Amino acid sequence: xxxxxxxxxxxxxxxxxxxxxxxxxxxxxxxxxxxxxxxxxxxxxxxxxxxxxxxxxxxxxxxxxxxxxxxxxxxxxxxxxxxxxxxxxxxxxxxxxxxxxxxxxxxxxxxxxxxxxxxxxxxxxxxxxxxxxxxxxxxxxxxxxxxxxxxxxxxxxxxxxxxxxxxxxxxxxxxxxxxxxxxxxxxxxxxxxxxxxxxxxxxxxxxxxxxxxxxxxxxxxxxxxxxxxxxxxxxxxxxxxxxxx
Length: 245
Hints:
Mean pLDDT is about 90; it is low at about 1-15. The relative contact order is 0.18. Strands 3-2-1-4-5-6 form a 6-stranded parallel sheet. About 50% of the residues lie in helices and about 10% in strands. The chain is globular. The protein has 10 helices and 6 strands. Pfam families: Hydrolase.
């Protein structure tokens, strides 16, 4: 089947009234571009897990209002290289960070299943929200440059909202913008805890996009899983059919 199959078009007569989607590693292949950008300033991407951990720590400080975005990037980069045993001056940290940002932006790409899925969702008449844990203005630039903005009725950026998934505040804000209730909304994302479980705990229907394929063990209660966005239309139609039965 394809995501454009007319027989899969939902009638909006069930409980699902809107869909929220994560951005990075759900719509945009962020990990690949981020690893390439890190390699541009380090020489390899072996330390990517360390980079992610330090980034998460500093983004939390940003969301708490302790740092501005530009200050956070500089401090984060210095902390990362310090963990590797290299002390950078502020000027050198800025130079390396600007280089990383340049390579990162040049590497932004959509996954192949994204546009067909978004086209199907728009044709279904379901309001759509992009809900991202990104902290800076670059996220709106990314969404615009990749042609994603046209598909969404609202875009929620954690750094602008002041809350990040799994905090229900960002989910509440998305649903308020769309004019729907949490219980009538599906959220899809690549992080099991932050996206799927966070959405479920907020009162939404949580869908985990696990692009790595099926994993061993059972899913948490109330969570659905897909390995590609091409599977989302069928999942939504099944949900609608069950709600209408």
